[in-house]
């Protein structure tokens, strides 16, 4: 008998391949805009006349900020899908939550890394333990790492899904703290308030940042699509193995029954 999942060689499709090519082209374009065409942040101090600013370090803005926003989107989707699973108890919601959480954790890790690289020339430190935004982001990352670790424990899939959904809903409570930390605890962070929210950027800088949002949304969509398909195929393969095992057990039981009947008649 042929495995019904064997006909699917990859998680790709014409649509996902087109999205992947567009995403790759967008990433190349974003890197050219961010690191070649945009200007460094150089200003003249009004009193001393010295050049001040973030200089070339500001170019990380076009990567760090969009990835942070996509992290919010991914974790929010994971929490929403987790709530959907607790209500509907259908596997589609669970696979979606797992996929979004996994991709979101990759983005959150990159946010921490790029933020650390950006902070070194601007703040003269790789990490500041007293910075409330850094710490709330780290806590958010660790909680979803725990979520993914829980997913790998040996347990009944339905029990595991329920537990993971609860963890996701608890972890998402930290997201508003991350987002509003600069406004709520402005004296306990090195981060400035939202440059975009206060409309302090314009022209090519603003355009490049908007391109960054679009490109990383495409990256997220592509990764989420493939991760969801991997999860769904894994679920289908597990169900097929269970069905095959049940069928085999029934065949063995039927064979034993026939053998016993033959022995009794003889």
List the helices and strands and how they pair.
Layout (H helix, E strand, L loop, with lengths): L13 H24 L3 E4 L6 E5 L5 H28 L2 H33 L8 H20 L5 H15 L2 H11 L18 H63 L1
Antiparallel strand pairs: 1-2
Helix pairs in contact: 1-7, 2-3, 2-5, 2-7, 3-4, 3-7, 4-5, 4-6
Textual characterization of the structure:
By secondary structure, the protein is mainly α. It has one domain (14-234). It contains seven helices and two strands. It has helices at 14-37, 61-88, 91-123, 132-151, 157-171, 174-184, 203-265, and strands at 41-44, 51-55. The protein has a two-stranded antiparallel sheet with strand order 1-2. The longest helix has 63 residues, at 203-265. The chain is globular and about 90 Å long.
Give the averaged pLDDT, no decimals. 87
Give the terminus-to-terminus CA distance. 35 Å
Estimated structural class: mainly alpha
Residue stretches low in confidence (pLDDT < 50, at least 5 long) are 1-9
How is the biggest beta sheet arranged? 2 strands, antiparallel
Approximate shape: globular
Strand content: under 5%
